[in-house]
């Protein structure tokens, strides 16, 4: 790291450097984000002719800490309003503090009692840089925080910068798009109270020429599960900054005297080797520094929802469990409809006790039956919601988000509980803790099926804080439950992929990717998901054909092979599967279990050749190829699929025993042997010969 008396610092990772400097006006500027520099090279940045220390009105500022102040006409990552109405900040640099792998820059306002800390953290095994912002009110009067982005990343100048993002909606999440960045500000985010189906808090920037395997890529991911915003700003000469943070306009949060606000992590990553390398780096980061049990491989689960929906008894669940166990499933999850008066979606949410008609003896007999089959037992809950037709709502109608003199809009006949309230959060924790303590439950599917509406908190002096405290209290409940029930594993669900981010993944073991289980649609959904999140957390179900949502008919092998690219699960109505389907399903489950460590913990590489696409996973000496062809054009033979392998090695197919030269696999490709019919697929396992 360069000498601190230059007021220049380099945040170094194994392969990259992020260099910042404090200028003569105490502004923190970004000078370099790219390949790693030596200390001497970093200092040479100060000699560049286009010096960042000569501010010219109208020039593009490249601030790492972008504050609302004089001449700052672009996006401001930090904006406040003091008690007397003053909004501009004038920060003075105080010190740089290094401790335990962190580097923090401390600034104080020249007049008002506000301290600002920008903090960076790196890990010796990752090129990801974690960035947070901390605000402390050292006075007595409250300060209104209008905007507090966790990071503003300064990207090097690019001729034709391009933006990659994940857009979508319910049933069509994580659709990857790449577009040229326009001049001005491009804003994506969520105002829904959750991460959202429509956008995901990740973006990537490249120079317009990057490919899967080559070219510089800069990306950021925000670890936050509530409302959020990412602003990508392109200046007149092509400079780009990416500012990421929680919250949305026009809400603000009050910072009382003596209080501290710490923002969630915005993680940044640079690679010189294309989009696939960036995705792999994010996956490695998630496994090493985000997930609570990164080395575990996730079990093959069976979920009962699409088989029964609300129409079932304990005996029905037991019969499904019998068939799931026979197929090789390792975890049986009973979905919605087991509690309170929940015989449809109009009642019962909030009353987390077993339905006495369906479970007269409680959950114990079903759980004992499932455990006796050698499977773990899981259960569905939606703790942040309540039906107006419930005992909880009748007792506490004030516990939901609402505004005076406004309707309480329902979605799926349910309202959102005000989890920002301490009494509500304590109640939810107590009911779930009671459920888990009284039953041998191994797994919880935590759902959240609707966004906020009429998001008010009548009588509270700082009602906007609900947008922040809801998520904070959700995290606190999950943390407490995991601490008190260490063997519990949790899946995050929000009408499918409505809450997928590194914040929720720090507290859960996997996520439900989408309510759309059509294998053809899932190829694109899973490809977008994999840009940042690893296969280890990507729940993927095999369901019935025709698909319940799209009505598309797809062969069983194709459905399984697409789902095998993540955490395989079965969600079809096994009561109507033929004996042949049941037997073939068992064979495919066994295949997946054999390759599961490679898929869930290995390195992912996308594959494409003509109309054949797929993924390759590598771990140690094992390579797993999953490939699909939706349709065959003009009876042409399928192209060979080029693999990413060691050219000097040999690879043996586990099933056939055939040996391949790495040079041939890399230069010409692998013959997949796909069936001539539409929706053909294959899974091929290769081992590297010693």
Give structural notes:
21% of the residues lie in helices and 30% in strands. α4 runs parallel beside α5 and α11 packs parallel to α12 (579-601). The strands form seven sheets. Strands 5, 6, 7, 8, 11, 12, 14, 15, 19 and 20 form a ten-stranded antiparallel β-sheet that branches. Strands 21-22-23-26-27-28-29-30 form an eight-stranded parallel β-barrel, surrounded by five helices. A six-stranded antiparallel β-sheet has the order 31-32-33-36-34-35. The chain starts with 7 loop residues before the first strand and ends with a strand. The chain has three domains: 4-289, Distorted Sandwich (Beta-galactosidase, Chain A, domain 5), CATH 2.70.98; 301-601, Aldolase class I (TIM Barrel, Alpha-Beta Barrel); 606-688, Sandwich (Immunoglobulin-like). The protein is globular. A hairpin with a 2-residue loop joins β32 (612-619) and β33 (622-629). The model has no long low-confidence stretch (mean pLDDT 95). 49% of the residues are buried. It has 690 residues and is of the alpha+beta class. Residues 28-255 form the Glycosyl hydrolase family 36 N-terminal domain. Its EC number is 3.2.1.22. This is Alpha-galactosidase. It holds the Pfam family Glyco_hydro_36N. Belongs to the glycosyl hydrolase.
């Amino acid at each position: 790291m360069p000498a601190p008396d230059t007021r220049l610092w380099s945040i170094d990772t194994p392969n990259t450097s992020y260099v910042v400097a404090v200028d003569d006006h105490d502004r923190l500027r970004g000078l370099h984000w790219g390949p790693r520099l030596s200390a001497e090279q970093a200092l040479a940045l100060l000699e560049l002719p286009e010096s960042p220390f000569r501010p010219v009105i109208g020039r593009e500022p490249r601030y790492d800490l972008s504050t609302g102040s004089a001449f700052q006409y672009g996006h401001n990552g930090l904006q406040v309003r003091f008690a007397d109405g003053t909004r501009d900040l004038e920060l003075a640099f105080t010190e740089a503090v290094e401790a335990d792998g962190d580097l923090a820059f401390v600034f104080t306002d020249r007049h008002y009692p506000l301290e600002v800390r920008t903090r960076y953290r790196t890990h010796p095994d990752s090129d990801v840089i974690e960035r947070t912002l901390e605000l402390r009110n050292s006075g007595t009067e409250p300060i209104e925080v209008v905007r507090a982005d966790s990071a503003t990343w300064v990207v090097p100048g690019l001729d034709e910068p391009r933006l990659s993002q994940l857009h979508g909606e319910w049933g069509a999440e994580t659709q990857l798009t790449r577009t040229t960045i326009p001049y001005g500000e491009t804003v994506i985010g969520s105002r829904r109270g959750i991460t959202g189906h429509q956008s995901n808090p990740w973006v990537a920037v490249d120079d317009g020429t990057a490919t899967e395997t080559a070219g510089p890529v800069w990306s950021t991911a925000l670890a936050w599960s509530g409302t959020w915003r990412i602003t990508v700003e392109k200046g007149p000469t092509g400079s780009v900054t990416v500012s990421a943070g929680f919250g949305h306009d026009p809400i603000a949060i009050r910072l009382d005297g003596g209080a501290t606000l710490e923002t969630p992590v915005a993680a940044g990553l640079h690679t010189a080797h294309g989009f696939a390398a960036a995705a792999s780096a994010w996956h490695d980061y998630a496994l090493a520094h985000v997930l609570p049990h990164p080395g575990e491989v996730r079990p093959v689960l069976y979920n009962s929802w699409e088989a029964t929906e609300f129409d079932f008894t304990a005996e029905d669940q037991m019969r499904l469990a019998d068939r799931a166990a026979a197929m090789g499933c390792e975890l049986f999850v009973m979905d919605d409809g087991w509690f309170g008066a929940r015989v449809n979606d109009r009642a019962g949410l909030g009353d987390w006790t077993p339905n006495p008609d369906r479970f007269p003896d409680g959950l114990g007999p079903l759980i004992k039956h499932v455990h006796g089959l050698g499977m773990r037992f899981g259960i569905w809950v939606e703790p942040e919601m309540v039906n107006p037709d419930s005992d909880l709502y009748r007792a506490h109608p004030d516990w939901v988000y609402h505004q005076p003199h406004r309707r309480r809009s329902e979605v799926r006949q349910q309202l959102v509980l005000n989890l920002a309230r301490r009494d509500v959060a304590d109640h939810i924790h107590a009911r779930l803790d009671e459920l888990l303590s009284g039953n041998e439950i191994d797994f919880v599917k935590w759902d959240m099926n609707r966004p906020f509406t009429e998001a008010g908190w009548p009588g509270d002096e700082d009602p906007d804080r609900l947008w922040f405290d809801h998520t904070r209290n959700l995290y606190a409940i999950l943390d407490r439950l995991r601490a008190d029930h260490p063997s519990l594993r949790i899946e995050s669900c929000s009408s499918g992929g409505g809450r997928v981010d590194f914040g929720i993944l720090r507290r859960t073991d996997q996520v439900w990717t989408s309510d759309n289980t059509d294998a053809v649609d899932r190829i694109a959904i899973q490809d977008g998901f994999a840009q940042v999140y690893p296969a280890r957390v990507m729940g993927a179900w095999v369901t019935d054909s025709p698909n319940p949502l799209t009505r598309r008919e797809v062969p069983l092998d194709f459905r399984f092979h697409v789902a095998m690219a993540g955490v395989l699960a079965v969600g079809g109505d096994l009561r109507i599967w033929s004996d042949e389907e049941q037997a073939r399903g068992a064979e495919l489950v066994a295949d997946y279990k054999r390759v599961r460590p490679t898929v869930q913990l290995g390195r992912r590489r996308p594959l494409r050749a003509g109309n054949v696409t797929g993924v390759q996973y590598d771990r140690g000496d094992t390579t797993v190829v999953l490939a699909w062809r939706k349709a065959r054009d003009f009876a042409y033979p399928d192209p060979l699929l080029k693999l990413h392998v060691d050219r000097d090695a040999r690879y043996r197919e586990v099933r056939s025993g055939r040996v391949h030269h790495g040079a041939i696999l890399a230069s010409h490709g692998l013959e997949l042997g796909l069936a001539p019919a539409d929706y053909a697929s294959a899974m091929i396992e290769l081992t590297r010969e010693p």
